[in-house]
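Folded chain entry —
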Amino acid sequence: MTLVLGIGGGGTPSRDAAACLVDDAGRVLALVAEERVAGARCGSWPRRAVERCLELADTRWPEVTVVAVGRRLPHDSPVRRPVDLLERIGAPSRELGRLKVEFVGSHEALIAAAVGCCGAPQAAVLVADAAGEDGPVSLWRWQEGQAQRLEVWPQTCSPGQLMDETARWMGPGITPGAVADLAAYGAHMVPPDPGWLRVGDDGMRSLLGADARINHAVAADLWQARIAEFAGSGPRPDRPARQLPMDRIACRVAAAAQTTVARVMQQLAARARRLAGTDVLCVAGSMARNEHVMGRLERPLFTAPVPDGARGAALGAAWTLSPPSPAQLMDPYRGSYAGLPPAPATGRTREATDPARVAELLASGQLVGVAWGRSEAGTRQLGHRTVLATPTDRTILGTLARVSGALPWRPAAVIARHRAHLLWAETGALEPYGAGRAPLTEQGQTQLPAAAHRDGTVLPHLLVETGSPVAAILDALEAGGQPPVLLTAPLAAPTGPLAETTDQAVRGAGRHGLDLLVTGAAGEALIRFDRSLPWRAAPAPGARR
């Protein structure tokens, strides 16, 4: 068996770095972000992620035939030769002369990741990112395993950068996803179209112009000026991030930005389908993570569980050289194994997991963490590293936000069984990845009050796997006469990103105040935390006391 190692993060040390290992049939053996292995966000090459991928696949460097990098080599990269890259990602010196290195364009890599999850012989592809070697927005036709670029637009036309700069204008702690959620609080203001981005018969137009020499840094400054002009002469939002829904100017700016990108993406989607001659659409890039936009695009619609960033680039680069055959929805659980459950200790007890009992405790308002099996490859919580809560009580949202580190006004996602479909409109192939928001039905708004965002939508993830502890808990809820639906939020490590291992999950759950943790290789152990005792999680190895 020959293996392809995909690298995301490009030719420079990247805060967002990842590695992906696929076999000669395109099967994803492992997909790991560097920050998940490090236990904290850090700017580095994905050396530890590569090691973890090889470990998960139970293989070694001699089995790897080629390293595929998910972007072309930047002109300012410290990597001048392929061997420089191989050394930085940990390739043994004896392998340096044998290994091949292939650089794949960033959009080409993201396209391969998206169409690899599609399964259709022909598709239109819309890539809308914050940046790109040739331009941040491009339309493609995918047919017979080949991608043909139809149109491309310069940096000034990037909807992804517009959302990035709107988030930067609002201040620390705000992400593009938060801007999209905040827009619902300004929708009643009916913001006028600021004319930032438009799509006409001749293609995209931007208020920043169409000069291809304008790079990302210059465009950032231009967007900041335009956003400030739209906001008026007043100061930038001075409220803390948790209070932004009370800032009328911030809500109005967020609504203007989200309305602009939603309209532009719908027009670009229609244009891509018309030019490619097919109704099947794949979306890639940072705008594919805008669940509000994705939920409004017409079906059939596909994306990858990792549609952008280093993870998407690593997956797509590997699939460019070894595509899946046949293409199909990807198993999103390609990260590290949770490991064995911990032994009982002061402040916590351990018992066998009883799904019916866990369902009862959830219904009573307790928070339950889950860390079992292999972790999610992407950033969404799909039932393997997550915090669960009842969707029937809105008062639990504040506690859930505190535990997960989220802003209290941002909506929680839900995880459910297929039988919950009557509670919201279907989102098709987006549901296994929790990639698109859907309007709640009247029944859904009544039964799931804590799941509804201000705009009446919900972000659903339909659990298709069987035999998982979350599936068993959802089935127990339904057997008890309740909807098989739960709120889901990130299960954080004590510091940094999501918990990856059982040890991180236990220390994080204790520190953040969870009541219970379902863990173990198969979710067989239930950890109870004694909330009457002060909990001080042990510091991570190498951390300062």
About this structure: The chain has a mean pLDDT of 89. The two ends are 46 Å apart (CA to CA). The CA atoms of residues 116 and 327 lie 5 Å apart.
